[in-house]
């Protein structure tokens, strides 16, 4: 391709030829080095093109294009024609036609070009046209990619789940819908607005400016949480991340990514609350669980304890901790088996504390229990480990002594006496007890444990009967006697209904005048087979079995009936004394019963005197005082029987309004020989005088005793020397004789027992 300058026409022919050649070379060089493809087309065929053109269409040389139809350079005939239709009106006007057009390389690939076309002679298009072809395919692709990227960015921008804001000088340049939605604004409403608009206050905005822009000014990111104000005024908590668009130049603006965390915070708060509630629940459940586990443990422990306790209670005595009757039987049977198999000796000992009932009645059960506990420990300490000391009931203990023969058992019995003898200090009481023991040996006294215990029990009763504080080995004779005792108990239960009881009366006379002052009713029991049985033997049995209440009522009724009969026969001026046992005295109906009986027999209360032992009152003095007050209210007199043998206190004597003390016959018996007895009797009389009480000496058997008692100031006397207890009809002559008073015999020769002097 060449373009001739106008100057050529002016050159001389030779020089002009040279100039033309030079110009042609210059043009060729220009074409060869052009960065765009240049092609000369005439009659739709390539006339000439430069190397770049060949390169663009991937032809191996510019000559390869020459002569080719320009149509082949286009994707299709239609495209070729369309270009022609668009370009030639422009070209025909002599203008340059420019377009971006898709063309085809020689290998068939389509590519984008920038075409610039011009007719060589706009007047005559047949002269052809010059086209500059610039390969912009790469640029087009980059542009397309850029646009795609921009579109993608826009989509991201528009659909991002975070607010995106571009601020410049704190004025919103651009933002996405999400940001608008966060603050409740419509599309485009915020553009050009100062960010002040979405802060709660001016000061907040200022503070945020200082806070956020400090790192941004240094080209760094800012991250933080802040509270913004929505269009409707509600507070919106957001997390923001901001960075300068150009770290080196903050004035270019800043990009803000805004995340609405209000909901998240609300949910987090809710979650935290739920978590807290859950944790609390877990804590509660854990606590409940651990409490339940602890309860379970406690229950298991309690059950274990209960089972052990039940087992213990079933086998041990609650008061002393010693084996009880059940364990005793188990151990006893085992001991008998072992003794039988090994041929070794075995002793069983029955031990009963003497007068324990007395302690219990007089000092109360608490003292009695404490005494039992102490004695139980002493017994346990006295024997070997393999021996058994069991508490059977009350004050009864049984010892199993494996390997003990008669000698060994006797030694143990002595040690028991020794152990029990030492006084026991319980509060202000110093008590001493003694044991009565019975011993049975295997196999002589019993082939099984039951028989051995029975034998030992029988032997113990014998030891008691023979003076207590003693021990006895079982003998067959004892067996008989024990059977008799049982017989007595049975017989007593039917004695009342069978009318086997009778009363004897023993007079009591004034020591000063000899006049009859009273009569004591004394119970007698005559059994058809057993004969006369002493009240000293059967009263304790009646007390133990509770029959004493019914028997005692019979005695009172009979005695008062007798007194009334005597009254009717003119025998008066004396009282009727009736003995009351502790069980009778404590019976709640006693005062009422006494009143009823007095009324039934038409007698006043002051003709009756009830004799109580010292100890009935002391167990529960308050209750005793109440009963005594009620009896006093009926006019009934109260005397203390066997005074000096029990536990009386002066204050109680006074409180109980006792009218008479009966000096026990054990003090009277040796009067004259025993100075101590004399001193005691004298002291009792003085004390009674001081308290305004009368004194009756019991068991007066001799005139000497009588004189001494009279000399001491004793007010009344009772005893064989005056009269034995006699049936009513037999005592009547005495009563008649002494009604108005009779001198009492001064010397024994003058009065035989049972034959009182006139
Ligand atoms: N609760 C009840 N107890 C009663 C009743 N009847 C009697 N008893 C008590 O029985 C115990 C024994 O009585 P008893 O065998 O009748 O003996 C009494 C007299 O016979 C006896 N006595 C009287 N004088 C003399 C004597 O000079 N010498 C002597 N050795 N004995 C004598 O004393 C007994 C009367 O004692 P007391 O009652 O203490 O005044 C006896 O404890 C009776 O109390 C009853 O119905 N209920």
From TrEMBL:
Residues 485-739 form the EAL domain. InterPro entries: Biofilm_reg_signaling (IPR052155), EAL_dom (IPR001633), EAL_sf (IPR035919), GGDEF_dom (IPR000160), Nucleotide_cyclase (IPR029787), PAC (IPR001610), PAS (IPR000014), PAS-assoc_C (IPR000700). It comes from the Bacteria. Residues 344-476 form the GGDEF domain. GO terms for molecular function: cyclic-guanylate-specific phosphodiesterase activity. Coiled coil: none annotated. It catalyses: 3',3'-c-di-GMP + H2O = 5'-phosphoguanylyl(3'->5')guanosine + H(+). Pfam families: EAL (PF00563), GGDEF (PF00990), PAS_8 (PF13188), PAS_9 (PF13426). One of its GO terms (biological process) is cellular response to nitric oxide. Residues 97-148, 220-273 form the PAC domain. CDD domains: EAL (cd01948), GGDEF (cd01949), PAS (cd00130). This is Diguanylate cyclase/phosphodiesterase.
């Amino acid at each position: 391709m060449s373009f001739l300058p106008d100057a050529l026409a002016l050159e001389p022919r030779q020089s002009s030829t040279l100039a033309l050649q030079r110009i042609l070379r210059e043009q060729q060089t220009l074409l060869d080095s052009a960065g765009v493809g240049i092609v000369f087309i005439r009659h739709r065929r390539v006339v000439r093109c430069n190397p770049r053109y060949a390169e663009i269409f991937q032809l191996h040389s510019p000559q390869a294009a020459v002569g080719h139809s320009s149509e082949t350079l286009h994707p299709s005939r239609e495209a070729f024609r369309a270009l022609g239709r668009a370009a030639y009106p422009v070209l025909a006007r002599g203008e340059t036609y420019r377009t971006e057009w898709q063309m085809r390389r020689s290998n068939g690939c389509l590519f984008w070009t920038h075409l610039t076309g011009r007719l060589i002679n706009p007047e005559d298009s047949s002269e052809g046209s010059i086209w500059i072809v610039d390969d912009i395919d790469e640029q087009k692709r980059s542009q397309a990619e850029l646009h795609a990227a921009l579109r993608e960015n826009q989509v991201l921008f528009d659909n991002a789940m975070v607010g995106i804001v571009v601020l410049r000088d704190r004025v919103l340049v651009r933002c996405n819908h999400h940001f608008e939605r966060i603050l409740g604004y419509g599309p485009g409403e915020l553009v050009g607005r100062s960010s002040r608009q979405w802060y709660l206050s001016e000061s907040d905005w200022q503070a945020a400016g200082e806070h956020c822009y400090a790192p941004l000014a240094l080209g760094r990111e800012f991250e933080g949480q802040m509270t913004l104000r929505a269009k409707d005024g509600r507070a919106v908590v957001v997390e923001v991340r901001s960075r300068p668009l150009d770290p080196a130049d903050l004035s270019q603006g800043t990009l803000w990514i805004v995340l609405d965390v209000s909901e998240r915070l609300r949910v987090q708060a809710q979650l935290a609350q739920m978590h807290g509630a859950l944790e609390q629940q877990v804590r509660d459940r854990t606590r409940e669980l651990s409490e339940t586990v602890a309860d379970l443990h406690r229950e298991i422990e309690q059950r274990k304890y209960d089972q052990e306790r039940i087992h213990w209670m079933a086998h041990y005595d609650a008061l002393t901790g010693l084996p009880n009757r059940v364990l005793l039987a188990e151990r006893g049977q085992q001991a008998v088996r072992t003794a039988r198999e090994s041929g070794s000796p075995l002793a069983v000992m029955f031990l009963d504390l003497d007068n324990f009932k007395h302690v219990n009645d007089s000092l109360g059960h608490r003292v009695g229990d404490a005494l039992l506990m102490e004695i139980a420990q002493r017994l346990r300490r006295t024997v070997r480990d393999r021996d058994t000391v069991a508490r059977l009931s009350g004050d009864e203990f049984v010892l199993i002594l494996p390997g003990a023969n008669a000698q060994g058992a006797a030694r143990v019995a002595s040690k028991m006496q020794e152990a029990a003898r030492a006084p026991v200090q319980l509060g202000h009481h110093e008590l001493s007890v003694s044991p009565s023991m019975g011993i049975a040996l295997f196999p002589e006294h019993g082939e099984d444990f039951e028989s051995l215990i029975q034998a030992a029990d029988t032997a113990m009763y014998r030891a008691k009967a023979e003076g207590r504080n003693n021990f006895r080995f079982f003998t067959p004779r004892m067996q008989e006697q024990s059977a008799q005792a049982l017989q007595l108990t049975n017989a007593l239960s039917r004695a009342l209904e069978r009318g086997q009881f009778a009363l004897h009366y023993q007079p009591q006379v004034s020591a000063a005048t000899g006049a009859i002052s009273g009569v004591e009713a004394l119970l007698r029991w005559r059994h058809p087979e057993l004969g006369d049985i002493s009240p000293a033997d059967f009263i304790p049995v009646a007390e133990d079995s509770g029959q004493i209440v019914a028997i005692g009522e019979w005695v009172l009724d009979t005695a008062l009936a007798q007194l009334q009969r005597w009254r009717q026969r003119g025998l008066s001026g004396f009282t009727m004394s009736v003995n009351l046992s502790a069980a009778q005295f404590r019976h709640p109906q006693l005062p009422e019963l006494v009143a009823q009986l007095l009324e039934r027999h038409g007698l006043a209360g002051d003709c009756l005197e009830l004799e109580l032992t010292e100890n009935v009152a002391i167990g529960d003095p308050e209750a005793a005082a109440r009963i005594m007050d009620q009896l006093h209210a009926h006019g009934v007199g109260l005397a203390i029987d066997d005074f000096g043998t029990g536990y009386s206190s002066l204050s109680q004597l006074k409180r109980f309004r006792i009218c008479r003390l009966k000096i026990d016959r054990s003090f009277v018996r040796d009067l004259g020989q025993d100075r101590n007895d004399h001193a005691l009797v004298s002291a009792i009389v003085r004390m009674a005088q001081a308290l305004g009480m009368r004194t009756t000496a019991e068991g007066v058997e001799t005139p000497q005793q009588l004189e001494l008692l009279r000399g001491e100031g004793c007010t009344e006397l009772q005893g064989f020397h005056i009269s034995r207890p006699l049936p009513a009809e037999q005592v009547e002559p005495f009563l008649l004789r002494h009604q108005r008073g009779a001198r009492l015999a001064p010397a024994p020769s003058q009065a035989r027992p049972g034959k009182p002097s006139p």
